[in-house]
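Progress report, Aim 2. The chain analyzed during this reporting quarter is listed below.
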Amino acid sequence: MIHKLVLFSVCVFCMLSCKKQIEISKENNSQEENHERMEYLNTFSNFLPDYMFDQGAWFGIKLSEHQIGIDTALLLSDSLGYKSKQPLFELEVKQNDQKIIFDIKNQFLPGRLIQESKSTDLTITLQSIYTNHQTALLAYTLSNTSNAPIVIDLNQKVLGATVEHQIIKHKLSNAALEFTFDHNVSTTSITIPANQSITQHIAIRHRFDEDVPFSEFSFEKEALEFKKNEERWYGYLKPYQSLTAKKQLLAAKCIQTLVNNWRSASGLYKHDGVFPSYYYSYFNGFWAWDSWRHAVALSTFEPELAKNQVRAMYDFQDEQGMIADAVWRDPKIYKPNLRNTKPPLSGWAIHTIFKADNDISFVKEMFPKLVKYHQWWYKNRDHNDNKLCEYGSTDGTREAAAWESGMDNAVRFDTAKMIKNNANAWSLDQESIDLNAYLYGEKEYLVALGSVLGKIAFVDSTKNEIKQLKNEILNKFYDEEDGYLYDYNFKSNRKIKVKGPEAWAPLWFKIPTQEQAENVIKIITDTTHFNTHCPFPTLDASHPKFNPQKGYWRGPVWLDQAYIAINGMKNYGFETEAEAMKEKLLNNAEGLLEKNQAVWENYDPRNGKPLNAKHFSWSSSHLLLLLHDEITAAN
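Predicted structure tokens for the chain:
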């Protein structure tokens, strides 16, 4: 016997006990809740039409377009990615030796694939979810919709080969795949009674670390995972139900993007984390400032994953306190980039996570590491010891120093030179406004976290540092004539007068005076500078080097910088202007509010066209935070 018969019977009793009535009531309520959850999740069908991942899996799956089953797998287990040459699973159905032709409809729900295939008297519904980072669970149901029994022949194929055993093992790329069917299987004739159904469960399990065993698995337990999956994803999305339908769609899209890019601990990774984009092999790694951004957004719906995302990068903190710029699972392919670090936003992440779940143990764990990283900047990136830091590198290259800023080819660095600080540290010859604003903000987070831990002396000392740094920032970086904040070259004793988003970070941390902030915001809201068709470009639109199509940080709209600007404007009472530019961004960045459109790395400010990598995590993070802020403000 290769299948389960799902039989329904109705028993009618003249009298029911009180206990039985309560049980029936609870069951009906549960069914209503299940229906409500699935109806809501169904509204987001097909919003992300590529591979699905979940639970930190390293293999992605998608539905076949023209046949019943699961198409090729995307395996990220060799870091560079590998697509199977054959579909993972196919189902062929015959009747009287003739192949039945089905009308196939695919749906991609949050956390679930659903394929419905219909013929005259037979409907096949296939669903797939992830139960853990190693296992995708498939269930297909054959439903006889006629009033007479039908006899069919099933041919199940795994990676192109006919299934003849209950457990099938394959070596694919450098990974082991194991297919387990919940009944013995073969090419078999099956009779389906009138108006009845038959269901088969299949587990697809993936392993690429030879010394890591498969997690515990049983079909009795896993069959309940479909309900758990539904509850988990409904829980992710429920907070956004008060938003407009299009914004709910965007929230779902952002959460799905983050979860799709979630990877479990493996290789060099000691903790789970999130890739920038699974879709591109060069983004299959963890980056420092991406990770801090991901963690903040994750804290709104998966705080434990948010904590692990922070830990994943702090695992690569060296003895001096520096954190690696980027790390990959397999050092044989890419070694960790230790040439530079990234802007100091981990304090923001740690503080936000703590506010989300009040886990003091996490603060105790991370606080000394955060202090060490914060102090590292002043020991290795403050060339003239004036408490204002510069971006730099460990190898003396200007390329790595620009990478350290995160704004790799920003125009403000075009004339910068490298100077040596110590044996393993070099700086650019200019102090950056955004870096020192981030360090100012980190001091504030250290005060808040230190207060939680009762570190009074540390808190008092850091408060004094905050006052001093604020004065230095206001005196050094603000230009009275232009009404804008610029980097400062201390060798030539001049400001680097390139208007870019680096000036927005001080607004985010409420550093400038009201008058200074109003002058900066006047430029941000000016249509000739930053209030473009798709607002918040990363270079003043009137600058001669403005080049969104090829510029990367010379014009494209990056969502993290837009988030910083919007919140900075609100800090100084410009809520109306900030909201207007936010709505302009959401409506004019092509596809953000539409189905079947991914979230991209950045957007062209002139026309809103998506640029560079799609399915991008930090864009999704900041969009989700904008929506989360909208809900918080409404409440």
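Residues 1-27 have pLDDT under 50 and may be disordered. The chain has two domains: 35-213+221-232, 242-634. These observations will guide the mutagenesis work planned for the next reporting period.
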